[in-house]
Each structure stands twice: as structure tokens, then as C-alpha cells.
Specification:
Layout lengths: L13 H10 L9 E2 L10 H18 L1 E3 L3 H10 L2 E3 L2 E3 L4 H6 L5 E4 L8 E4 L2 E4 L7 E4 L3 E4 L2 H13 L21 H12 L11 H15 L1 H6 L4 E6 L4 E2 L1 H12 L3 E10 L7 H22 L5 E10 L6 E2 L3 H17 L3 E3 L11 H17 L3 E2 L5 E2 L4 E3 H18 L6 H4 L1 H7 L9 H6 L15 H6 L5 H14 L8 H16 L7
Helix pairs in contact: 2-10, 5-6, 6-7, 6-19, 7-9, 10-11, 11-12, 12-13, 13-18
Length: 514
């Protein structure tokens, strides 16, 4: 899947060939991460048992609300739950029993089979930011997002080697009517990229549109028998399931499409201030949501979600990259594995208004936390700014570059004969150096991960080139990737059918901006 300039052969061509190789545009996607490192676990067996027992108490005694959804209430009543108005109290053990039919791992198919991903087990799939109404870049500053911005982000995601997934609402295209923008977003993911993508969840009818567009792209039979979308179903924490999100979940579960069941936690506001209390609520909410998906269709693929931040008690703003969020994420990973479910959490989280030192520290803390917590699907892996209100172009490429470091750490420490390097140690001996030894010559191209963005030049060279900081380098990187974007091939008949579907759907309803 790599395009490169032809190598010049013959005398004196070695340098030119190497320069061509370095500067050629390569469109490649790394395989999803397969961890060879242990998960970091913070909860003892005793702590897990306490949290699990407390979550069952919450479900049985406090209960959860299913709002404006009489059909959901009837499903729960038939399953053996106590229904009082819109409050559902789930007997101990019932939700956990229903969750047993959910798969521990599943394949999400991409239209390019080489880019399909395995979600669950020791795998980690990286997807971009989701949901912000604003965008920011060096030239235009902070502004409302447009469809053009959305399409540019999809292109950047396609061009980003370490990003495995195209995502969903990478930003909200506010120049398109609310009731029609999902069609343009789906079309962009399907045509501008060949990576896996997410479906719409803002109305059950839009989830159905997503299914029907996938049937055009993949074929009805393939969609019937395979998972081609993973979509985000947020719980209105604390313990409230609204009809819009549950309606989308019902559509996707019925069609065997995957959903992330994710509490939306801001500690101190939507959950207790304590780690153990937050984990109890997270587990109770996920148990109820996953169990409901299995009432719709036993075996429907689902992911245990945990979006976690805390609150600044002075301003009321969410905070990111904090120790408490890390502890909740590590603990939630343990609880997800106990249930045998894939786990979603973490991302390029930060509260900063700019891609500055605060953004870098908080993002690094959050990304590394996700890797160590055993996250299987990491939404918001790149581009997040200002607490998720802004998708930033420069930060998108900064974060996407650093995702390569996660791939490197996840490899662990191989100890096969080549990696033991005993021949190299013998060859060099005391007082020598390894630059010219046979082992180095054989491995130097792949031995170390290297950033495609950061500047490692000597000071004098850096100064001569303008003394550019990382933000300036990222601006250049965005421009380079967009200028060199190459659209992946798509059957013209499928493209025409998708265009016709979108046009017909848009024509069938008046514009609505709320």
C-alpha cells in the first residue's frame, strides 16, 4: 500500500535514490497494536469484589432510568427486572448473566480488507477525536467547524500511518443542517478513506441511514453477517439512558453492529469524587447498557466504555491527564476484562486552549495511560483540544505522530537470537562503538521508532532553517499531508449509488438546524 518514487539506478545514483525514498509520499497504515506488554492493574482482588458487589447493589436498589422508551421498559420487565415508572431495578446477577452472550473480541471490517481491525483481547485500535463543534488551525484560529474541515480531517486520518480507524464525528460540520449532516459525514468516511469508521447515533433514523449506506458500500449480505461499524452510545450519567442513544443502540444491535456503551463521567459532577465510588457507578451503568444490548440481540458486539475526567472545583471545568482519571481508567480496564468485554477509554485528552506544554503533558499522560490500562478501542487518539470542544489540525498531526511511540512500547522486549545481539557485543568488545558493526548495519533502519514531525537536527541547522517550534512544524505537516492526499479507489457504481442515496435522503426532508 506504499507509493514511492522510482529509484534511479546506475553509478552515482545511491544518494539520489535515498533522497527520493525519504521524500516520497507513502500512504500506509500500521496494523492495529498487538500488545506484548502486561496491563497495569491497580485493584486488588478484594477491591474488585467490593466494587462488583456495590455495582450490583446500585442496580438492584437504586436502579437506572430508561427515559421516554416504553419498549425498553417492557423488555426489562419481561427479563425479570422491577419497573417503577421509568426506573428499572435489576435483580442481582441478572445484568451480568445477560452480558455473558456479548463477544470478548470481534472484527470490524474495513472496505479495504487489509485495514480491518480486531477489537478485544490484547489488541489496541486507535481512532481520532469525536464530536467537537469547533476547529482550530494556525491560519484560521478557533471557529465553528464546516464540512470542508470535516473532510480534511478524514483525509489526514487516512494519511496518518499510526491511526487505524477513520472515526466518526471528527468535528461537527455546522454549515450543514443537523438532520442531514450525518449523510455527508458517512459519505466522507466511505469515499475519502478506506479505513474502518463509525455510524451516526444522533437519532435512531440516522443509525438506520448508516446501516443502509453500509449495505450499499459492502453489500446487504455482508453487512447482515459481519460487523462494519463501531458506534458510540453515551450514557447520561448518573444512571440515565435516554431514548435517542438507546434508540440508536437498538438499531445497531439488531443489525449486529458494534456499540461502545460508555458512561460520560466528570468526577465530582456526574460521579462521586472517589475512585472506588466512580468505578462502582461506571460498572453499574455499563452492566445495564450491555445487558440491554443483549436483550435486543444476544451476541451483538459491544465495548465496555469509560470516558473519565475530574472537575476543577474552582472553575467547574473538566480536567484531564490527572492521577485520579488514570486510576479510574486502570481499574475500569480490570473490570472490563473480568466481564470478558473489549475496553474503550483514554485518548489525547487535555484542557488546554492551544497545543502547548499543558496540552502535551496532559495528552502524554492520557495516551500512555490508555496503553497500560489495556484499552482495546481508543477514541479521541488525536486532535483533542480545550476539553473536547475543539478539533485542532496541528494537534491532530502531533498526536497522530506520537501514536507511533505507543506501537513501539507495545512491542515489548523480544529476546530472540538477533535481539540478544551477542554477536555485536563480541564484535565490538571493550572500548569500541557499534555504529559500524554488522548487527547495527543489518538493523538500523527498523531498530528505533522515529518521529516524522519532531526536529532532531543540531542547533545551528535548526536555527538556519528558521528556528521552527513544534507548532510550526505541525502546520507544515498538515499542509504537506493534505497537498499529497491520494483518494483510495472505489468502484464507480458504488460511489454513484452512495451519492444518489444521500441526494434522495436530503431531498426528502426540509433543512433543520436544531
Amino acid at each position: 500500500m506504499a507509493d514511492s518514487a522510482p529509484r534511479r539506478r546506475g553509478r552515482g545514483g545511491g544518494g539520489a535514490a535515498r533522497r527520493a525514498e525519504r521524500t516520497a509520499v507513502k500512504i500506509e497504515t500500521a496494523k492495529y497494536i498487538e500488545r506484548n506488554i502486561p496491563n497495569f492493574e491497580v485493584l486488588s482482588e478484594e477491591a474488585i469484589q467490593v466494587i462488583e458487589a456495590n455495582a450490583e447493589t446500585v442496580l438492584a436498589e437504586v436502579g437506572v432510568n430508561f427515559v421516554d422508551n416504553p419498549a425498553a421498559l417492557e423488555r426489562w420487565r419481561a427479563a425479570g427486572a422491577e419497573v417503577d415508572g421509568e426506573r428499572v431495578r435489576i435483580p442481582r446477577g441478572l445484568a451480568r448473566k445477560l452480558c455473558e452472550t456479548a463477544p470478548s473480541q470481534f472484527t470490524q471490517h474495513a472496505r479495504n480488507p487489509e485495514k480491518s481491525v480486531e477489537i478485544g483481547g490484547k489488541n489496541m485500535v486507535l481512532a481520532p477525536i469525536y464530536g467537537p463543534p469547533f476547529v482550530r488551525d494556525a491560519k484560521g484560529g478557533r471557529r465553528y467547524a464546516t464540512l470542508d474541515d470535516f473532510q480534511k480531517f478524514v483525509k489526514l486520518g487516512y494519511m496518518s500511518k499510526w491511526l487505524h480507524h477513520s472515526g466518526g464525528t471528527v468535528c461537527e460540520p455546522t454549515d450543514v443542517p443537523v438532520n442531514k449532516r450525518h449523510l455527508d459525514m458517512m459519505l466522507a468516511h466511505m469515499t475519502l478513506s478506506d479505513k474502518p469508521f463509525m455510524g451516526s447515533v444522533t437519532e435512531p433514523s440516522r443509525a438506520q441511514d448508516s446501516i443502509e449506506m453500509c449495505e450499499i458500500l459492502f453489500g446487504k449480505e455482508f453487512v447482515r453477517d459481519n460487523t462494519v461499524m463501531t458506534s458510540l452510545i453515551n450514557i447520561n450519567s448518573p444512571m440515565t439512558f435516554d431514548d435517542v442513544m438507546m434508540g440508536a443502540l437498538e438499531v445497531y444491535a439488531k443489525h449486529n453492529q458494534a456499540c461502545i456503551i460508555s458512561p460520560f463521567i466528570v468526577g465530582g459532577a456526574m460521579a462521586p469524587v472517589s475512585v472506588a465510588g466512580t468505578l462502582t457507578q461506571v460498572l453499574a451503568e455499563v452492566l445495564a447498557g450491555v445487558a440491554y444490548s443483549q436483550l435486543i440481540r444476544p451476541g451483538a458486539p459491544v465495548i465496555f466504555g469509560a470516558f473519565v475526567s475530574s472537575i476543577d472545583m474552582n472553575s467547574g471545568a473538566p480536567t484531564f491527564g490527572t492521577p485520579e482519571a488514570s486510576l479510574v481508567t486502570y481499574g475500569a480496564g480490570q473490570l472490563a476484562r473480568r466481564l470478558g468485554l473489549p475496553f474503550r477509554s483514554a485518548g489525547s485528552f487535555c484542557g488546554s486552549k492551544l497545543p502547548d506544554a499543558q496540552a502535551a503533558y496532559e495528552t502524554a499522560n492520557s495516551l500512555n495511560m490508555g496503553l497500560l490500562a489495556g484499552v482495546n478501542f481508543q477514541l479521541h487518539s488525536c486532535g483533542w483540544l480545550e476539553g473536547g470542544l475543539v478539533a485542532d489540525f496541528e494537534k491532530f498531526v502531533m498526536d497522530a505522530d506520537q501514536l507511533g511511540a505507543l506501537h513501539g512500547v507495545a512491542k515489548g522486549v523480544p529476546v530472540d537470537e538477533d535481539h540478544q545481539a551477542m554477536d555485536a557485543i563480541r564484535e565490538v568488545g571493550p572500548g569500541g562503538h557499534y555504529l559500524g558493526c554488522a548487527h547495527t548495519q543489518a538493523n538500523f533502519k527498523t531498530a528505533f521508532w522515529k518521529s516524522d514531525l519532531f526536529d532532531y537536527k543540531p542547533y545551528e541547522t535548526w536555527e538556519e532553517e528558521g528556528g521552527r517550534d513544534t507548532y510550526a512544524l505541525a502546520t507544515n505537516r498538515v499542509e504537506y499531508l493534505l497537498n499529497n492526499y491520494q483518494q483510495p479507489a472505489l468502484d464507480p457504481e458504488i460511489k454513484a449509488a452512495l451519492d444518489a442515496y444521500v441526494a434522495e435522503k436530503k431531498a426528502s426532508m426540509p433543512d433543520a438546524f436544531s
